[in-house]
Amino acid sequence: MRLLVVTAVDAERQAVLEGGPKLDVVTIGVGMPGAAAHTALVLARAETAYDAVVSTGIAGGFDGRAAIGETVIATRTVAGDLGAESPDGFLTVDELGFGLSAWDTDPQLRQLLAAQLANVRTGAIVSVNTVTGSAESAAALVARHPDAVAEAMEGFGAACAAVALTLPFAEVRTISNQVGPRDRAAWRIGDALTALRDVGAALATLES
Fold first, then answer.
1. pTM of the predicted model, to two decimals?
2. How many domains does the chain divide into?
């Protein structure tokens, strides 16, 4: 299996490569639009076709669902703020009839990764354009997506590129902070990056 592994920033890429130095890991930038565009571009320009796409990096965990230091494997990737506001609350693009705001991840990739990693949680990973900064916003996301375990910014975009080319997709994240009020003093980005080395090692076994 030949994997295209995508991360938002170079620090995440480096951490993954420390665990899996022979992996193809590409930095695609922060946010869903850039993730979709850059992932699609890499796939289209590849001299040898990829068999699957994996989005990885650090993320925020929803309180009581994914703790700092844990690893989360997405059962589905969700565009958490793609839709419209209404007097009755937020409406997803699905409810508006304009498309899909979630993609299921590949079951086989999920199982293979889970077998190689410790302290794993599974559930939806919510991609957002604006990182949640309040308890109220965090609660609203969980209410809309009861299976949500973590919040990131790129997974749905990378998934759109993979789906367009009918490639299996997975998203795996390591938790650096809790979703909600921004408390940088409590963030453990270094620990989350260290955990990404294990993710890189796990991904490498899929190619061996």
1. 0.96
2. 1
